[in-house]
Design brief:
about 230 residues, alpha/beta, 9 helices, globular, 8-stranded parallel β-sheet
Length: about 230
């Protein structure tokens, strides 16, 4: 059975290969290890193999791990849906949030970010496929949200995130990711300083890298299938 360290190396090799194949600059794509539902020992195993950025989606599951591993230089990213009553803890314990899709949530994260911490890095989650059962703002709402966030001093808009409609067709995968890339470019052309495209998971990371991903969020390929 492959260890987490073995799987981490395999994922990094996939990223390296995709960077070369699609003429991306070496090292331009960062790996976010999605450790939701995984125990602290699994996070530590990946940490000991060199991984430093970890993504969590369930606050009640994440906080005990963050406390248990507080003496390690881990950068914690929140990637799941956000309820209003969870914003204070997220603003306090995470460095990044990839899943902001409501102005109310952004305002609460800004207001509740401790003054002693650097501004919270934010990605706006875009529902690029217009799926009714999926979180994320619609593309036509993007500029209004970006403008509002630019006025909040305790958060910093870094980029966009999406979870497109699942498909095994590589061409269709690329089309979805290309839409997010074009939205990011439009925002940049309008004066926003964005450096992050958070897109691509275990099944479609190559397509995401082909279309400009700077962060791929990998769980299953690294930690194995979840129950």
């Amino acid at each position: 059975m492959n260890t987490i360290a073995d799987r981490l190396n395999q994922v990094k090799q996939r990223i390296d290969d995709a960077e070369k194949l699609y003429n991306r600059h070496p090292g331009s794509v960062s790996l976010l290890a999605v450790s939701k539902t995984q125990p602290a020992r699994a996070v530590l195993a990946a940490y000991n193999a060199g991984q430093r950025r970890f993504g969590e989606s369930y606050l009640q599951d994440a906080l005990p791990k963050i406390e248990a591993l507080k003496n390690y230089d881990i950068e914690w990213h929140f990637t799941g849906p956000i309820q209003s009553n969870k914003t204070r803890a997220i603003a306090t314990h995470f460095s990044w949030v990839h899943s902001v899709d409501r102005l109310k949530i952004a305002q609460r994260l800004n207001d509740q970010r401790p003054a002693k911490l650097k501004p919270l890095c934010i990605c706006l989650q875009v529902n690029i496929s217009h799926e009714q059962n999926k979180s994320g703002i619609h593309p036509e709402e993007l500029f209004t949200m970006a403008e509002a966030l630019s006025l909040m001093p305790n958060i910093r808009l870094r980029g966009l995130m999406t979870i497109p409609e699942a498909t095994k067709n590589r061409e269709n995968q690329r089309k979805s990711f290309n839409k997010l890339r074009k939205l990011q470019l439009t925002l940049i052309e309008s004066g926003y300083s964005l450096d992050t495209l958070s897109m691509g998971m275990s099944e479609d990371l190559e397509a995401a890298i082909a279309e400009g991903a700077t962060v791929v969020r990998i769980g299953t390929a690294l930690f194995g299938s979840r129950d």
